[in-house]
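Quick one: examine this chain and its backbone structure tokens and tell me how the chain folds. Here goes:
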Amino acid sequence: MKPLAPADLPRGLPGAIARIAERLSNQTDVRDLDFHSAADGMFLADLHCDTLLWGVDPMASRNGGHVDGPRLARAGMGLQVFAAPTWTPLPFRNDEDRLVVSARSFDQSHGLFPTELLIPARERNRKRRSRALAIARRFHEMIRDSQSETAPFEAVPLMQGGDLDGLTRGDGRPNIGVMLALEGLHWLADDDPAERVEATVDELYEAGFRMIAPTHRFSNGLGGASENSAGKGGLTAVGHKWLNLCFDRRIVVDLAHASSALIREASGMALTREDGPRPIIISHAGIKAVNPRARNLSEGDIRAVVSTGGLIGIGFWRSAMGWTDDEPYLAKMQRIVESFVAALDTLSEPHFVEEMEGRHGRYDPYEHLAFGSDFDGATTTAFDVTGVSHVVAALANARDQKMRTIFPSDKLALISGENTRRVLQVAMT
């Protein structure tokens, strides 16, 4: 392929994206990119998978899905966050004939659908709490089973900041850091007393949860969600109590499904803590500049989270990226690259850089991006966990309009895993 001259390309970020598109779209065969060598020796981390929701043995090889023990080991993963979704809502048509999800949605998984509406709301909430605790037990069973010499890897439970120190990408049977996350604290109501909120957070902590997302798909008693929520409000009074408790107990706060109002409000609270700023993360999301769906992040969302010293996990799934099933594999990889480029551009805006340097003393926009796959969620991806190295390779091959590397190897190592390790460590310490 004859390279295009800089004069042939659009200026600025569009030019960078055009360059990426040119390079990747002209690859006619997956083998044209060395998909594995780019990730060799790198610490790889992923902020979100839903594998434990489905009742499978996470240490056993299986057909289908995205994540299991043998594939995690083969992919060279150093850290994997396992989420416990407590409500997987089925979309329905509202009065405006739009497909939406809300608290009226049936729960698609684990026995509540389709008879859910026959169950009193209080009982449904008990079932969602029970689901979270059942997934927590499955998480601890995975850790126990990993101690066997025949297990594909040994799981290192991440319960406090110091647990992230010793994570390495080892040879032979690897050690992989594993963290338990909650996705949607739906059983708390917006009028619950402080004692119930504190007891709930303490119960989740004792069960092993070290990351909590308050909302999932729709608003609840803690605050507004990014999708299908009238008004898309911020934190409720209960949400304020929950957030401060998480900060106090060094539980990682994940706002992947939160409304923009909630993100702004929570970020402001994180920055004004008496004990210093607490980092917030977005575990898995797309970027509105690439695909303008409600679930994806605006520039304001990205900057609010990163202003706390936090982290943006870019997802790999179809609806976040905006690709279609009939697009070639490399076109789908290109969309992921474009999402990282767009997020980097937002974080590199001069006024924001100046603000961050004034607040934190130093600032590197590359230090706030990460992988957030959403493997095994209600999603379609182009690859399973063994394809994380493909993302690394695609990023390594991205060039701007002057053929300069957008993600040099040292910055790529940050994005691929080191940022996740560092920010989680700070948040848990």
Notes: The two ends are 50 Å apart (CA to CA).
